[in-house]
């Protein structure tokens, strides 16, 4: 260790980059990044990456070069441990429409501003280097800060600086992710108001080292956590077996559905009775009754009417999809908000919107969509009968908007995250990151290891460097 301490900053930086590259070459891990400037400044527009494209290190560098060309060179980097677009959906007000959004400061200053830069999918190998990339922009070493040290510092608007604020993602057992994120947002708010109070214009970047996975909301029995990745290409054509089900309105197809299995199960006399609706739905000589279905620009309703399902004379499986415009991504998204079962006049309703969504030009596909895989589909309320039912769709693909014909558009794929390979990658990468953060730590001549390791302790700070 003593020998390591003598490593010069320069060599350290190379080592850092090298380790970053190794650590993150493992997976296709995506992290969102948002950049914005203080009032009165606008980031230069960047040609937005096409949907589903993961921004690489080189692309991020060029985007930052362009975007930062017109804005103040007092840079603030809010670097959270982990972050995914899912966090915005789950806890935020912009994607998630939550009134009690935990990203209030971030949303007001960045996400809702038309002049900000929003990259929903940046490879984590690029965001791990974001501090270096920003440093190259202004040619100044980063200062690791917390709001208290910032308040004591006299900033000079004409001297470029890179101030880095590390933010945790989880707070151990004591705090929920929501509380931690809410605390982080307060830190962002404080920092921005200090900058304002000192009348120093700034450019800020919020991103993370690693993608997060929404773990705490998932029941322990669940082995996979559902995350999403926008895939440019679909897997095998489902048409290999049967063509997708089409619903046509005014002669043109507006909804497509395909699944290998559409299983509904009801709990009766102490056991689950299953019925697979797929054979009645897909196939050359099957004509499913779609009466009641409808679609227009913003709402799509697919009603599948069956007879004699689990002894119910009439049985309906209904998919409710909506399309909304989210300013933050300047794009329309569709969500599958609800799945209803209607049987002999009773209903069972499941919510899906938080997890089942895709850009509106895309279709949504998932290896398995299931109500037992909480929270992918969750009972809408305790009042109806959803708790007596389970639904489980295998190799499921649906598209309710922008349908161009008999075939699905590109699919936005939900991918199961914790495969053994990824676990191995994660552990290896974690070790690498530990090594490199230690290296970085020394480069910045920070103080002690113990404080750095303690997420609840005060953030590491360096009052000044030369
Ligand atoms: C800010 O920095 C510039 C250039 O280094 C210097 O001329 C100026 O006096 C500084 N302003 C303050 C308020 O310190
Ligand atoms: C289709 O389903 C609706 C509602 O369940 C029913 O009223 C109608 O008769 C069915 N149509 C055919 C052709 O079976
Ligand atoms: C689309 O249909 C829904 C109900 O199915 C209706 O409430 C909405 O007004 C329609 N929108 C347009 C633009 O026609
Ligand atoms: C389902 O959605 C409704 C409104 O869309 C909401 O009130 C309800 O809490 C949701 N249920 C669950 C279990 O998330």
Offer a quick outline of the entry.
With 466 residues, this protein is an alpha+beta fold. 26% of the residues lie in helices and 32% in strands. It has two domains: 30-210, no CATH class; 245-413, Porin (Beta Barrel), CATH 2.40.160.110.
Structure description:
The chain has two domains: 30-210, no CATH class; 245-413, Porin. It contains twelve helices and 21 strands. Helix 2 (9-24) runs antiparallel to helix 11 and helix 3 packs parallel to helix 7. Strand 10 and strand 11 (271-276) form a beta hairpin. The chain is elongated and about 75 Å long. The chain is an alpha+beta fold and 466 residues long. One 2-acetamido-2-deoxy-beta-D-glucopyranose binds at residues 289, 291, 305, 314. Keywords: Membrane, Signal, Transmembrane, Transmembrane helix. Residues 1-27 form the signal peptide. Pfam families: Ac45-VOA1_TM, VAS1_LD. This is V-type proton ATPase subunit S1-like.
Low-confidence runs of at least 5 consecutive residues:
1-27, 214-239, 416-423
What number of structural domains do the residues give? 2
Spatial shape: elongated
Classify the secondary structure makeup into a structural class: alpha+beta
Number of helices: 12
Radius of gyration of CA atoms, rounded to a whole number: 25 Å
The main β sheet shows up as: 8 strands, mixed
Share in helix: 25-40%
Number of strands: 21
**Averaging pLDDT over every residue, what do you get?**
78
The small molecules bound here are:
2-acetamido-2-deoxy-beta-D-glucopyranose
Oligomerization category of the chains in this entry: single chain
- N→C terminal distance: 25 Å
β-sheet strand percentage: 25-35%
